[in-house]
Amino acid sequence: MEKVKVLIIGSGPAGFTAAIYTSRANLSPVLYEGIEPGGQLTTTTEIENFPGYPEGITGTAMMEDLRKQALRFGADVRRGIITDIDLSKRPFKAVIDHEHEIEAEAVIVSTGASAKYLGLESEAKYRGMGVSACATCDGFFYRKKDVAVVGGGDTACEEATYLASICKKVYLIVRKNYLRASKAMQERVFNTPNIEVLFEHNTKEVLGDEYGVTGVRLVHTSGEERTIEVMGFFLAIGHNPNTEFLKGQLELDEQKYIKVVPGTSKTSVEGVFAAGDVKDPHYRQAITAAGSGCIAALDCERWLLAQ
Ligand code: NDP
Questions:
Q1: Which of 69, 145, 146, 278 is spaced 20 to 30 Å from 257 by Cα?
Q2: What pairing do the DSSP bridges indicate for beta strands 113-115 and 212-220?
């Protein structure tokens, strides 16, 4: 069986940063890229808020840069999905693509989270062309334009208020007749004059042309339909952390994010570290994920040294 010191699972900014640090520390990490090589950033358009790119960069180009940087220091970056893992004893054992087995002294989990989408064909068609699941990442492209946000939770309210500060008008599309968000968030929404909350509305279709989204067709619970003209359509209906493959072997919170010792990357299993969105329901930024990848690598290095 193949034996490695450090196994990194996931290829977003957290995984690649962990790979850069652990390879520079001579730990010869092996990184498996997972289902979506490059992670969520490869589904966004331009990234303008990652320090060090004054002109901005596309998500795909940034991930390619991070990958190259990890390779430069000798990280072994591989295609493959972890289909089984045993964290009950050390060395840890993982199965890749149902066939290849690997033993690892330490594991860094950086499998990220996946934004939920409504599942409409038209929504998929305009993804990256007006349809986005991250207002912080993409809101800026719709400055002074009309946009819509779907969802009634804290994220939706936060994103709607953020967008209201840069866009002309924000429609908040809520399927129930109330917001699930905290009272403070609700108040912020109701006190923002350029947010219009459309309660009891569901999205039937995202409309667009060759340049991107032009509007959204909505249906009220009464059956009445209406079309709103917007250039941006933001989903804020929750995220699913990619923790299913762990099959309950690490302690998770009630939303299924990996629990870590606050301020560290240490999970409930000694020798297993977590980084990025898979342990972070709040910030979910490329830069915070990269920072936590660095923390995981340093925690991992120190733990291995102490063994
Ligand atoms: P939530 O699960 O809290 O809310 C999801 C929202 O999306 C709900 O309003 C839900 O509607 C709606 N929704 C789900 N599926 C659909 C669908 N198919 N069509 C239309 N609407 C849909 O997720 P959040 O991301 O908002 O929050 C996750 C957690 O993070 C929460 O605990 C939240 O409090 C926390 N958070 C805290 C923040 C803060 O404190 N600053 C900021 C952001 C998040 P319905 O209500 O009908 O189920």
A1: 69
A2: unpaired
Q: Do domains 2-114+239-306 and 117-235 have the same CATH topology?
A: yes
Provide the CATH topology of domain 2-114+239-306. Answer: FAD/NAD(P)-binding domain (3.50.50)
Region of 231 (left: φ > 0; alpha: ψ -120 to 50; beta: rest) is alpha
What pLDDT score does 249 carry? Answer: 97
Q: Whose CA is nearest to atom 15 of ligand 1?
A: 237
Would you state the pLDDT for residue 43?
67
* Ligand 1 neighbours (beta carbon < 6 A): 118, 150-156, 158, 175-176, 180, 237-238, 281
The residue whose CA is least distant from atom 39 of ligand 1 is: 154
CB contact at 8 A, 184 and 198 = no
Q: Which of 157, 159, 180 to mutate to test the pocket of ligand 1 (most atoms within 8 A of CB)?
A: 180
Model pLDDT, residue 45: 66
pLDDT tens-digit profile of 62-98? 999 999 999 999 999 999 999 999 999 999 999 999 9
What pLDDT, on the 0 to 100 scale, is given for residue 284?
87
- Rounded CA gap, 31 and 47, in Å? 24
- Any idea where the domains of the chain sit in the sequence? 2-114+239-306, 117-235
User: How far is the centre of ligand 1, averaged over its atoms, from the C-alpha of 4 (Å)?
Assistant: 40
- In this structure, are residues 105 and 6 in contact, taking their beta carbons and an 8 Å threshold? yes
Query: Mean pLDDT of all residues in the chain?
Result: 95
Active site (catalytic) residues: 134, 137-138
Nearest CA to ligand 1 atom 25: 238
Q: Tell me if the domain spanning 117-235 has CATH number 3.50.50.60.
A: yes
* pTM of structure: 0.79
Residues (pLDDT < 70) of the chain are 43-45
